[in-house]
Amino acid sequence: MTLAHGRPYLAIPGPSVMPDRVLNAMHQPAPNIYEGALIDMVSALVPDLKAVARTAGHVAIYIANGHGAWEAAAANVVRPGEKILLLVTGRFGTGWGEVFARQGVEVQALDFGRRATVDLAQVEAALAADKSHKIKAVAVVHVDTATSVKNDIAAIRAVLDRADHPALLMVDCIASLAVDRFEMDAWGVDVMVAASQKGLMTPPGLAFVFFNDKAAARQVRPASLYWDWAPRANPALFYQYFGGTAPTHHLLGLRAALDMIAEEGGIEAVWARHEKLARAAWAAFEAWGREGPMELNIADPALRSHAVTALRIGGDDGARLRAWVEHKAGLTLGIGLGMAEPGDPAFHGFFRLGHMGHINAHMMMGALGVIEAGLVALEIAHGKGALEAAAKVIAEA
To answer: What is the CATH number of domain 9-16+266-395?
Structure first.
């Protein structure tokens, strides 16, 4: 028998759960793209996006996914033959490096593995060795969706400043924007990339590149017609925001999502909600792990993202558990992306819980309850008291 009939819960780390309000905002006839309400709406939407990113700089909007944001950022600031320093803490750092390399950029990668944050001493040494300043940018992922590690962006900026190095600081916030605290201007970030389908609670299809005046002054020219961020950030005509026809219905959905963020109390309140729910999940996972194979991939809570939690459970139990909770209870968990190659049997010993965007306490407690039911049904060893531990976190004032 299955108890999965009813509304499914997609608890993967993106696309996140789409609020009914966002979907309903999109469910209308196509608007006029030449004048009227849509044009006025986008003009008001841009400052609200910047407020979420905590920047007074610029934003370019693309009809793309996160990979498109990677490519747009790379195309605008680094020329073929130039060099970047790439800081890798999981699968998505590697992916951004591949985009740079395909554009003819030399990539010097420092790989810190799948269970650690960036080692600042190694970054400092690499910058100190770059006497002629061949490195044009330092690129890093704030939250790697595969490993759930969260990097200290302000500390990386401090390393650049101590080295008096002119490289741009480029940060991928695709998983973390509107989930984990991110302060673009205060932390000295020059370029930041994001996308619509995670903390911004809008279907995949919009990508964003935020950049400051320093990055604008360093723009590669001539940039390609489509990826050029200058007309998108400062359009003379409405169509230039998007390099052509506007993504009308995604914009309507994004407007509703930004309104929801504002009505919750602003981005600070959104960060606080995600922190509380993440801590509830961690409390449950830690309780299960005391008498079983469950292990959080990142041991130190201070280094974990509030957007996603990566778990190690070993054997084939990750795959078994994912299959059981989806088919028996309607809960979809994330695969262990990047933790082992798909053909490697170890791939089946990992899973991820996404907790980003449109999620509240009963959704989190429901997901944890279903996971416990799966552990019981599959006879996977686990400690007691997990749901009580999660409930205690949620009950805290």
So the answer is: 3.90.1150.10
